[in-house]
Design a protein that fits this description.
Elements (H helix, E strand, L loop, with lengths): L1 H19 L9 H10 L9 H17 L4 H5 L3 H29 L8 H8 L3
Helix pairs in contact: 1-2, 1-5, 2-5, 3-5
Amino acid sequence: MTALAALIAIPICTRACRLLGSKDPGEVVLDEIVAVPIVFWCGALPMTLPWLAAGFIVFRIMDVLKPPPARQLEHMAEGTGIVADDLVAGLYAAIVLWAIQLALAQWGSQPIADVGDLLSGGLFG
């Protein structure tokens, strides 16, 4: 699904580059929207509020730092570069969060309340 979304996003981001006259316009967030699901890797991480927040934060850090090969992929033409570097940032963020989850599991840490628990009775009930 993410691959399909990326294929659709590339020409849209290319068009935005041309219309806005910029190589990677800040107004374009479709690349982030396409890449963020990679962070949560098809349900490999708990869908709890702390993990969702951590996923967003770690993704943004990776997107700003652009560790290799993200920086190199950013130099690809127009929409391809815009989307490709974010896909790699999402992959790096997923790896970091997966490693944190493994470390916490080794220490016997239990997941914090599920988002559904917060909404159904915990925080707002």
